[in-house]
From TrEMBL:
Record carries keyword Signal: yes
Residue ranges occupied by any Glycoside hydrolase family 29 N-terminal domain in the UniProt entry: 12-374
Name of the protein this chain belongs to: alpha-L-fucosidase
Domain Alpha-L-fucosidase C-terminal: 407-480
E.C. designation(s): 3.2.1.51
Keyword Ligase: no
Amino acid sequence: MININQINEVIGKGPFQDNWESLSRYSVPSWYKKAKFGIFIHWGVYSVPAYGNEWYPREMYLKDSARRDRQDVSMFDYHIQTYGPQHEFGYKDFIPMFKAEKFDPVAWASLFSRAGARYVMPVAEHHDGFQMYDSQLSPWNAAKMGPQRDIIGALKEAVQEKGMKFALSSHRAENWWFYDGGMTFHSDVQDDSFRGLYGPAQPRDPEWTIHGEGPDEAFLTDWLLRTCELVDLYQPSIVWFDWWIMNVRFKPYLKKFAAYYYNRAAERGTEVAINYKLDAYMHGTAVFDIERGQLNGIRPELWQTDTSVARNSWSHSVNNQYKEPADIICDLIDIVSKNGCLLLNVGPKADGTIPQEDESILLAIGNWLAVNGEGIYDTTHWKIYGEGPTQSGEEMHTEGKRGAYTDEDIRFTFKEGTLYAFVMKLPPSGTVMIRSLSTSSRHFRSVITSVNTLDGSLPLDWTVSDEGLRIDVSSLALTPYPTGFKIGME
């Protein structure tokens, strides 16, 4: 079982020390810069009630909660109506119902590969405190309860067999306060027998991040041990953290974890990354991530958006509000044009099957990437990300505020002397005008030698003037999906 002395020993012997100066020597993996598209998976005990979202274990204890998430009945009331009073049926009682009897990691990996993903990231532990792996630090895990199977280990093997990178997320930090609404239920959350699942259940105070109040040393040490255990058990290529590690008390432990993780990777000769939100990690020491949001411009350093196929939930829910695959593809293009990656989440059912809606979206994305992936994978950003009226939000949870992409929205990527231009929506006029490539453009001074669709199926007529690059697309069928053009230059 891992301990603090072992962690300190690895840090002491490795190239990275637990301070920002040393960690600033970190370099983003080359494979990550090329990958562009990954799959996130929210699956756990919360998938059993499948109501509202993955915050069900918290909301089921909050009588006055305002979170309804497109449901007619609050999660608190729904729980009573469906399972009985919380003091008689607590969240722990869902665990025996979480059997994962149809979980097929090989089928999952095959689907993700067909979707065009280059990396796969299941949730190792969510806020609820239930680990999806065979941990030596807590019995509240999928190998010892519920499925009685090392879910993470089985999925890792299948994912790597398909040639994709394997990553993990930890949401453990939020367990400090996640069940605070259940502190009035003495036979459940307050029972010390279940403390290993429910955690400290301390009051949630949004000011903790600013004033430094929050987790005690015991909780923070346990957090560090759990994350380092994940590194040693599964050697993930990415470790993703949710937002609450922003709490200032985590800072020494964040540095210690990064040094340990990066040193372990150096021992194996592998390239790894940490995903963080807000300013949890110092600039240049890890990879910045925006939840359900994008950027308005190019970021010189690699970044990532994490979002879900459903608007209202990360986990499977009976009333999930699904996005259109064409919209997700547009977001993928926009993110890549700004030097980012898209981490797209799906939510399997409790039995281990992936809902048909999730699967259909993934396959639609995969079909599009099979034709257009040349302009996505292994590319870099160009001088500008694109043109057109549609702007993205710059903060978390702003994706719903962005308007629909138009036929004037065009995004660029670049690779090996070739410019790729993606028209988010073909215009009904039959003519695409790319104004950034005009003879009078301040961005472009090259000579265009060829213009083709990425599938290369039809010859295109095109001209360049001081107005822009005009492409005759009247021979192309109108489609809800973006259309990619390959532009040769001298």
